Amino acid sequence: MAAARANLERVLTPDAYAHLGRLNSRLLDGAQGIIDRYRLAAYPVGIESKGVITFAASKVVDFETYKTAQQKELIDLLWLWNMNRGIFGTPGRDEEWTLSVAMTERDTDHYLGVFEEFAAEISR
Hints:
By secondary structure, this protein is mainly α. The protein contains 5 helices and 3 strands. Strand 1 and strand 2 (50-54) form a beta hairpin. Helix 2 (14-38) packs parallel to helix 5. The protein is globular and about 50 Å long. The mean pLDDT is 91.
């Protein structure tokens, strides 16, 4: 219990949440710029410390479109692409990134650089 309490009182502070929000905004804005540049049928979604790039020509709005609108092959390929470049992500479609308070802007730059390489490769 002491560890849980310390985490809530000393780690996950208002400043830490603000930091996570800034990093996530940086990822979302950067990803959208890459998507626009390469004209990908995709869009980023996220809040605070969680985000994902959804490969779909239309917005996912319910469970049915969650199952049918997404390009699963590209989602799986991006997961593998990231893993081979030092970016660990959970293998779920909607769980691409979860940020840590220890992460920095340099980490977001690395992610965006890898995503740009991916976008360039699939756009060839």
